[in-house]
Amino acid sequence: MTKKVLILPGDGIGQEVTASAKEVLDYLVAKHNLDFAITYMDVGGTAYEKHGSPLPDDVLVEAKKSDAILFGAVGAPKWDNLDWDNRPEQALLGLRKELELFANLRPAFLFNELASASPIKNNIIENLDILIVRELTGGIYFGEPRGLVDDQSPHYAFNTMIYNEDEIRRIAKVAFESAQKRNKKLCSVEKANVLEVSKFWRSIVSDMAKDYPDVELSHQLADNTAMQLVLNPNQFDVIVSSNLFGDILSDIAATLTGSIGMLPSASLNSSSQGMYEPCHGSAPDIADQNIANPIAMIASLAMALKYSLGEAKLSESIDNAIKTFISNGHRTKDISTSDDALNTNEVAPLIIEILKNDSAN
Ligand code: IPM
Ligand code: MG
C-alpha cells in the first residue's frame, strides 16, 4: 500500500534542511522503487503569512492521513508578538495534540570524532548514547484549567500539571520497551519531593517495573538529573519524563553532544504514525545562507523510515552513511574547526554518494 509522507518545511532553516532530506528520500524512492506519495505544505510563520494560520485546516487533514510527517522547524522573532493562536509554535503543538503523538523519542549520542565540539570534557562524554523519552501530549503544556486573569488585582496567570494513569502507563511502556532494546536501564525523572502529579507518576512507573524484570529502573528528581547529565551523563541509558521536564532535559542532553545540528527526533502515536523533526530550531539568524547542517533532518528521515514507513534496513543505511560522512571528515560550519565548511546543499549529494557505495544500496 502507498505510504504517505508529508513534508512541512516551516520557517527559517526548516526550508533548507527539509530540501536536503527530500533529496536523500528521492534517491531511495527511485533506487528501491518505494511506493511513497510525497506532499509538501506550509506551516508556522510561513503558513500564517500565506494562509492566515500557522496550522491551516487542510494541513491538519493531510497530516492525519499521512504515515510520516517530516517537520523542519518553525518560528522567528518577527512573529513573537502575534496572538497566542497565531504563533508559529502552535503548528507544532497542534499537530502533536491532534495526532496524539504522545511519545517523543530524543536520542542524544556523540559522534566521538566531534567530541571537541562539546562544551564538556571529552572523558566525560566519550561514547555518550542516551535516549530521552518525553511525554508530548499531556502535562502542563496542555493541562486545563489554564489562563490569564487580568480583570482583578493583582493580575495572575496559571497552568495545570496533570497526568492520568493511562497517560503515564503508555509513555512508560514505550520507555521500558526502548530500554529492553538498548542497555536495559531506565531512569524515570520527576519532582516527587514537591508535586503530587510527580509522586503519582513515580508510583505508576514503579508498579510497571514488575512487568519488565530485565530492565533496571531508577528514579531521579529533575533538578538532580539536570546536574547528573552534565557531571556523569554515561550513567544514563533511557530517561523517561513528562512534557515539561523532558523538554528541558532534552536540550541539556543535546547540548552535551556539541552538535545539536546532528540530532533527530520522533514523535509517535499508538498507530505508528509519526512526526519527525530535527532537535534544532528554525535558526533565523542563519536562514537562507546555505550554511545550516541538514544532518539532523536527514537522520530524522531515517527515524521515519524505521518507525512509520516499514523500511528499517534503509533507515540503518542512512545512519551508517551519516557515520561514514563524519568519519570521512565532512563538516558543515556548526561542527567544523576550520574555515572550509560544506554548504547545506553539498551534504545530501555526499550522503547519496556514500549510500551508492554501500553495496546494500
Ligand atoms: C521542543 C520545543 C517546543 C516545546 C516549542 C517550540 C513549543 O522547545 O520541541 O522541544 O516546548 O516542546
Ligand atoms: Mg524544547
Itemize the secondary structure elements and their pairings.
Layout: E1 3-10, H1 14-32, E2 36-40, H2 44-51, H3 57-65, E3 68-73, H4 89-98, E4 103-109, H5 122-125, E5 129-135, E6 147-149, E7 156-158, H6 165-181, E8 185-190, H7 196-208, E9 216-221, H8 222-231, E10 238-241, H9 243-256, E11 264-268, E12 274-278, H10 295-307, H11 312-327, H12 344-357
Parallel strand pairs: 1-2, 1-3, 3-12, 5-10, 8-9, 8-10
Antiparallel strand pairs: 4-5, 4-11, 6-7, 11-12
Helix pairs in contact: 1-10, 1-12, 6-7, 8-9, 10-11, 11-12
The chain binds 3-isopropylmalic acid and magnesium ion.
Give a description of the structure:
This protein is of the alpha/beta class and 361 residues long. The protein has two domains: 1-102 and 269-361, Isopropylmalate Dehydrogenase; 104-264, Isopropylmalate Dehydrogenase. Helices cover 41% and strands 18% of the residues. It contains twelve helices and twelve strands. The chain has helices spanning 14-32, 44-51, 57-65, 89-98, 122-125, 165-181, 196-208, 222-231, 243-256, 295-307, 312-327, 344-357, and strands at 3-10, 36-40, 68-73, 103-109, 129-135, 147-149, 156-158, 185-190, 216-221, 238-241, 264-268, 274-278. A ten-stranded mixed sheet has the order 2-1-3-12-11-4-5-10-8-9, with helices on both faces. The protein has a two-stranded antiparallel ribbon with strand order 6-7. Helix 1 links the parallel strand 1 (3-10) and strand 2. Helix 6 crosses helix 7. The two termini are 22 Å apart. The model has no long low-confidence stretch (mean pLDDT 96). The chain binds 3-isopropylmalic acid and magnesium ion. Residues 247, 251 line the site of magnesium ion (MG).
